[in-house]
TrEMBL record:
Keywords, sorted A to Z: Copper, Metal-binding, Oxidoreductase, Signal, TPQ
GO biological process, one term: amine metabolic process
SUPFAM superfamilies: Amine oxidase catalytic domain, Amine oxidase N-terminal region
UniProt domain Copper amine oxidase N2-terminal: residue ranges: 113-185
Pfam families: Cu_amine_oxid (PF01179), Cu_amine_oxidN2 (PF02727), DUF1965 (PF09248)
Residues of the Copper amine oxidase catalytic domain: 363-765
Family: Belongs to the copper/topaquinone oxidase family.
Name of this chain's protein: Amine oxidase
Species of origin: Tilletiaria anomala (strain ATCC 24038 / CBS 436.72 / UBC 951)
Keyword Hydrolase carried by entry: no
InterPro entries the record matches: Cu_Am_ox_TPQ-bd, Cu_amine_oxidase, Cu_amine_oxidase_C, Cu_amine_oxidase_C_sf, Cu_amine_oxidase_N-reg, Cu_amine_oxidase_N2, DUF1965
Length: 832
């Protein structure tokens, strides 16, 4: 029976493989959709579409009508807020990402004579041009935002944050500038402003050491071609730059810097990975081949680059001649195993079916319709006592702002700042890989969510848009919001005469970013007791290592495969405002005591007691989570005691996992660009000039980052001042056989909870209708004497069409791209 099933499976997969190769050429390294590769991919896409040669700016409304891809939500289940709760200012979301019109206005200005930048249109730019890379909202300074939000002051101006790649020089760099105030109707003049004040470096500018990726790729393929006979003999694959190549060559990231400041040397290692062209599953990172070579690519002239050593089977050869000589000797030792794609790298169903599993799966539905309010245009959401605004950026994706509880702000800003995936291994490609994933982008890869799988059917979906390479791209339904009951009640108590029990309904706001081989799911979960959980989960394909000599760096998980170990640290910024901005970070420690009491007749008794302290300055702002939970970290407002004199506050604590830091604390790959990940929690004084723990462009020159988080700690007082927290979620990931074909989210997850702590006088979940008290006569268990439902109906008034519970996903769309320069919104590319 089993054999028959597997045979049938093989046939079905093989027939899939035999189909035509995917329409979109696969990139060699899945993470290579960095800013430069994006430009190349988009240029290719542009060439495949006939562009209108004359530039005619069409109104955005016409485009929206034609392509229905406005940034606003599309869910038909929307409950628009009534007039009492709609924000009175139509522009109330001061954190909303740039509209297409705004981005277009900024780009047109930067190409104008007035800006005098002499930029090349991104569509035509080569690596030797100066061109616009990313355009995003420059978040308003909190100090100005609060004057607007709380004091009726002027609305903060809309400014863009624009990164320009300066490639027309021997020393290429990317510089980020501010452009604004944005005017979409030319009614006011725009200007350029320096953003050096928002960096620790003093200038928002960084050297790009890998500017010539296209030449680098050709260079490495030429090297590979010169060794093709050896490569073919050892791994049976071809990597020479032909269309029918069966292997790709890529490797370390970020580039290594050796030498010194006056004589820098850029070193890169490249490995071989089997191609997956024609194979429908994105599994190249499971197919390392165990041959590596080293190049020095200092400077921009490939004729001056140097071929260096080769590594095979743990033997390092000084150059390819030495490798070839060794290979030609009788008795040359070859690795026994190789990695080839197959059913083991495919995610389709396989194996013995599970009993009863073909029946429809359980689903979450809201029988009487959506129970939260959304203002889709303003990206505002209100559920229970909570409300929040949403922002979105190319670098970090979804971000929440102005999270309020019963109308009182408790968090000004909550969102991801940076994500590290840092590997270790016996081979130089694994040892040299430490991804900084905002470089690749969370926003650009926040693809459409799958209704019924990522989020329940009937969830409310928002679109998101980002602007890069002079194009705007909208991901439909890339953020979802939904309620669901957790698998446990939030409260219960039963006695011999009654049971009181409350459903644990939570609101979840979620987005998923597929950054190359990995899918990061980011969720913000709001609970009835006032708690807010920030959760990350990972799935997708691991980046694995060739098995030979890697046994100390991971488990062998397939014939020729080692599950290359790595750290994930996703660093979030949480800006708490507990009853105002002036807060204090309190530590309430539980310590052992051995003392006498008036009643103990002079005998000392061991016990424990609470010792209160505060983190006075930033000098003590780098924190570890206390062992055994013996300390409570509470953000309090000492000027706002509750009725019992205790300061009102919110506690922060790990929920899933325990917070995570990098194990390689002095990473030779990340150098000064991982200083936010050496502790799981930091508290520091919040400043407009310290708006993030990292810049995505740190990846270009990790030893000289634009933002080095460690410089933020300079002894400033944390006593009743505006605080900001930076916390790390993640895990040490040592992949095992269960990571094949994809990592599963049951264990690859971590979360943190921000929870009211003496903030209210009792548990606010008592307010929900969704609870019951059932009185019964214990002497006769069959007699229920009373059922109290607290206003909830005993049976729903069904407004739900059950056939909607299983979306067909027939309408799943890709994203839509709009050219920005020349701006012609009627000519989208849709090149995903
Ligand atoms: Cu991992």
């Amino acid at each position: 029976m089993k054999a028959v099933t597997l045979t049938a499976l093989s046939i079905s997969l093989l027939s899939l493989f035999a189909e035509a190769a995917p329409k979109v050429p696969r990139v060699t390294n899945p993470r290579v959709y960095g800013p430069q590769a994006l430009a190349a991919a988009r240029k290719q896409a542009a060439q495949s579409h006939l562009l209108s040669s004359s530039y005619a700016a069409a109104p955005q409304a016409a485009f929206n009508e034609k392509y229905a891809c406005s940034d606003a939500a599309t869910s038909s289940a929307a409950v628009i807020l009534d007039s009492r709760t709609v924000p009175t200012d139509p522009d109330a979301n001061i954190w909303a990402s740039l509209t297409n019109d705004e981005a277009a206005a900024v780009i047109a200005f930067l190409h104008s004579d007035k800006a005098s930048l002499n930029l090349t249109a991104a569509e035509n730019a080569t690596s030797w041009d100066n061109a616009i890379s990313v355009v995003d909202l420059l978040l308003p300074n909190k100090t100005e935002a609060l004057v607007y939000l709380d004091k009726g002051g002027p609305r903060p101006e809309r400014w863009a944050k624009v990164s320009i790649m300066y490639g027309a020089t021997e020393e290429p760099y990317v510089e980020t500038i501010a452009v604004g105030p944005i005017s979409t109707d030319n009614s006011t003049e725009m200007a350029i402003a320096n953003l050096g004040w928002q960096t620790s470096k003093g200038e928002h500018k960084i050297r790009v050491w890998n500017m010539d990726e296209d030449r680098f790729h050709k260079y490495t393929l030429n090297i590979s071609a010169s060794m093709q006979d050896v490569v073919m003999d050892l791994i049976g694959l071809k990597a020479v730059g032909d269309d029918d190549d069966t292997a790709s060559t890529w490797g370390t990231d970020p580039v290594w810097q050796q030498g010194n400041a006056t004589d820098p040397k850029i070193i890169r290692w490249v490995g071989y990975w089997a191609n997956i062209e024609g194979f429908p599953f994105d599994s190249q990172t499971l197919l390392p081949q165990g041959i590596y070579f080293e190049v020095e690519t200092t400077g921009r002239d490939p004729s001056k680059w140097k071929e260096m050593g080769w590594l095979y089977n743990n033997v390092y050869y000084e150059d390819k001649a030495a490798f070839r000589t060794a290979w030609s000797q009788p008795g040359f030792e070859k690795a026994a195993q190789r990695n080839t794609y197959g059913t083991w790298t495919a995610t389709d169903r396989q194996g013995e079916p599970l009993a009863e599993d073909a029946k429809a799966r359980p689903v979450v539905i809201a029988p009487e319709g959506q129970r939260f309010s959304v203002d889709s245009a303003r990206k505002f959401i209100q559920w229970g006592s909570f409300s929040a605004y949403m922002g979105f950026s190319r670098d970090t994706g979804l971000r929440l702002f102005d999270i309020a509880y019963d109308g009182q702000r408790i968090i000004y800003e909550l969102g991801l700042d940076e994500a590290i995936a840092s590997y270790s291994g016996n081979d130089p490609v694994q040892a040299g890989t430490s991804y900084l994933d905002t470089y690749y982008s969370f926003g650009a890869y926040a693809f459409e969510l799958a209704e019924g799988y990522d989020c329940p059917a009937g969830a409310y979906f928002f679109n998101s848009t980002f602007h890069a390479e002079e194009q705007s791209r909208t991901h439909h339904n890339s953020i979802c919001a939904f309620e669901m009951p957790m698998d446990y009640p939030i409260q219960r108590h039963s006695s011999g005469s009654y049971i009181s029990i409350t459903s644990n309904v939570a609101l979840i706001i979620k987005s998923v970013s597929s950054v190359g081989n990995y899918d990061y799911s980011l969720s913000y979960i709001f609970y009835l007791d006032g708690s807010i959980e920030t959760r990350v989960q990972a799935s997708g394909y691991i980046q694995a290592a060739f098995y030979a000599h890697n046994e100390d760096f991971g488990y062998q998980i397939h014939d020729g495969l080692s599950g290359s170990m790595h750290d994930h640290v996703l660093s979030f910024r949480l800006d708490p405002d507990i009853l105002g901005v002036n807060n204090t970070f309190a530590k309430h420690s539980i310590v052992p005591v051995n003392q006498t009491y008036p009643w103990s007749r002079g005998i000392s008794r061991p016990g424990m007691k609470m010792v209160r302290s505060v983190v006075e300055t930033e000098d003590d702002g780098a924190l570890n989570w206390p062992a055994n939970g013996s300390e409570m970290y509470v953000i309090v407002n000492q000027d706002e005691p509750n009725a019992y004199g205790e300061p009102r506050g919110f506690r922060i604590m790990p929920s899933l996992g325990s917070g995570h830091v990098v194990n390689i604390q002095d990473s030779p790959n990340l150098l000064k660009s991982q200083s936010f990940a050496t502790h799981p929690l930091y508290v520091l004084q919040r400043k407009d000039s310290e708006a993030s723990c990292a810049s995505p462009w740190n990846n270009y020159d990790t030893g000289n980052p634009i933002i080095d988080f460690s410089t933020y700690f300079n002894g400033e007082s944390l006593n009743q001042t505006d605080l900001v927290l930076q916390f790390g979620l993640g895990m040490l990931h040592v992949p095992h056989t269960g990571d094949l074909p994809n990592t599963v989210q049951t264990t690859a997850q971590a979360s943190i909870i921000f929870s009211p702590h003496n903030y209210l006088l009792s548990d606010p979940s008592r307010r929900t209708n969704q609870q019951i008290r059932l009185d019964y006569d214990s002497s006769n268990a069959r007699v229920v004497s009373n059922i109290e439902r607290f206003g909830a109906s005993p049976a729903p008034n069904w407004k739900y069409n059950l056939s909607d519970a299983y979306p067909t996903l027939q309408n799943y769309r890709g994203d839509v791209t709009v050219r920005k320069f020349p701006y012609d919104p009627l000519q989208p590319f849709g090149d995903t």
